[in-house]
Amino acid sequence: MATNERAIIHKSDEDLEVEWYLHRGRKLADQAHWAQLCEEIRHFDGIRARTTGGLPISKLLTRGARSRILAPVKSAFKDQDVKPSISGFLMMQAGAFGLDDDYAFSVLLAHAPMDASHLWYALADKDQTTAAYRAYSKHIDAAHSLLATACTQNEKSPYLLAAQCRLLDHDFPHGQSSKQLYTQLIELDPTTSQHLRDYGASLINPQSQKQDLLEFEAVGVINKTRDVWGIGSYAWMYLDALTKTASVYEKLDVAKFMEATIDIFERQTDQHTVNMFAALTAVSLSTPLGPRETSSAKRKRLQLHDTADWIVETHLREIHPRLWIDAAHWLKEDLAQAHEETKLRRGEEIALRVIDL
After folding, report:
1. Cβ atoms of 239 and 233 closer than 8 Å
2. What's the CA gap between 89 and 1, in Å, rounded?
3. Contact call for residues 86 and 142 (beta carbons, < 8 A)
């Protein structure tokens, strides 16, 4: 591959943006400045603000704040309290004077029981315990209630719609489809690539049994986003699915995916995006996704793998090691406890080896 020198960036513009907004959310939550936090969430939601790499800023502020909100639930889970209370959420709600009618605060609160429900569902699925399943259901119901309240406060919010999509994607027993909500979300905010990625990932969720819908929906979304992405939405929809299961390759149109990638690079010229696609094709797609890979899936996977040369030679000007180590999914378990510097060094080694610098 290409051999000319490229800058190695351990903290990219995207990394710095993400860290700043996560820290901001945590800080405001730690200081109980809920009104200020919600004002900032509403502001960034209203202007559809996103990071260089396409993450909604309102979502990052929420992620930062959620660690504070979720602390009592994590404690209950650690102690295997089979009757976890949502009183902590309600106390925060009561203490946030003037936010009763604030959709941002309702959505912010709703993410906490959603997070807790994931923990309890994993325990219920593992141990098959009725108590854990009841705890899971209680948190799911709490999230539904909070988001229903938010819907009465603002019906045109991407922040709210994204939260509703997240809830339905993980509300397995009720089996409600999030398709309509994702359609509304993408129509309301087509510029944020993370919404497209989340929608695509939801369609290959093993719990949903909807894998066959990915190609159909990826093609259908093109017309809804053509003014923004050309046909780039097709690649965004598939991006995360390509590393989850070999079955998605059966209906994948490789030529369309590459045309979509070109459209993305023409519209989103940052090096974070280029590194993400380069690492995906060069590293993630270099190995089979399991022992049941068909000859058709293998052929398409290797076709995409071969496009790494083109991406590196024509678009890559910097190396972002974090994305390259993330792409080496087989190292995730080995490096789970490793120091961040160790991970970055390994990512740098992988990138340099791949592009033969």
Report:
1. no
2. 53
3. yes
156 belongs to a structural domain: yes
Residues 214, 191: Cα–Cα separation, whole Å: 20
Residues in the chain: 357
- The pTM (predicted TM-score) of the whole model is 0.90
* Cα distance from N-terminal residue to C-terminal residue, the chain: 8
Name the domain count of the chain: 3
pLDDT tens digit sequence for 213-222:
899 999 999 9
How far is residue 206 from each of residues 195, 201, 209, 210, 242, measured CA to CA in Å?
Answer: 19, 10, 6, 8, 14
User: Are residues 71 and 198 located together in one domain of the fold?
Assistant: no
pLDDT under 70: residue ranges of the chain: 1-4, 71-95, 125-129, 172-176, 205-211, 357
Give me 120's structure tokens: 């309890």
Which residue in the block uniquely carries the two structure tokens 């259908």?
A: 220
Per DSSP, the residues of 139-168 read: HHHHHHHHHHHHHHH-SS-HHHHHHHHHHH
Same domain, 118 and 207: no
Q: pLDDT of 82-98, one tens digit each?
A: 555 555 566 666 667 77
Spatial contact of 222 and 231, defined as CB atoms under 8 Å apart:
yes
Task: State the chain's maximal CA–CA distance in angstroms.
Answer: 61
237 burial (CB, 10 Å; 0-12 / 13-18 / 19+) is: buried
Task: Please choose, from the candidates 214, 268, 216, 253, the residue with its C-alpha nearest in 3D space to the C-alpha of residue 14.
Answer: 268
